[in-house]
Amino acid sequence: MTMQMPCLKNADTPRFKRWGLWLGACLLSQAQLGFAADLVTTDTAFEVLQKQAQQWAASHPSFQGKQVQVAPLDPRITVQNCQQTMQFEQPFSNQPALRVRCAQPAWQLFVNLNTGQAFAPVNRANAGAPVLHKVLVSKELLKRGTVITPAMFSVAEMPAAGMENQIISDIKIIKNMELVRDLTPNTPLRSYDVKNAVLVKRGQEVQVTAGEGQGFSITMRAEALQDGGWGEQIRLKNVESGRSLQGVITGPNAAKLR
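The chain above was modelled as a monomer; its predicted structure follows.
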């Protein structure tokens, strides 16, 4: 069925002219509103992460008084929109690397903060010599997912221009960490190469202790209801009683009651 617009008779009368002017103004107003709506933009997930990281850094002793920016992420990493306020943590006290967690949907990643700091005056006598930094370098090829140990690395001195805030020089902080990408021999270890190792996996049996430091110690068997790394709190279920528990991971398939 074809719809036709009705023809207006006597359209030249003052009444119809006024009606036409009002209709034209109305349509123009709606078009302007639609155009304005098209100009409204929303922040990307990375921009939201950036703003929340800056708010967190403003109240953290390590970054107070400094202008911080989240360093660009690896192009292979996609930041998901977080439906809740993100949680930030600085796992390496001497590194500007942050662990970012989102509860809904559940995800976590590491980011680096670039801080606006004043640089020391250049020593003209040594201006031509490259600045050397102590770094940890891998002794052999290490595959993604490897739980790393200090024995896998040696300390070396080499130029680190452009990644001073990302290199890891303290061998103590790599405990209970795992690689997120392959690492070739003699490659410096950087903060975004690692993440907390998954020491307990969902469905595995976990040895849970309770009472340590209180004059007694009890060990029980529990089933992990979620994955977790060292120091993280996860949900557990007592194998014998079926009771739900909250435990903090202390090692591979080991936890203590919260």
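Helices lie at 14-39, 45-58.
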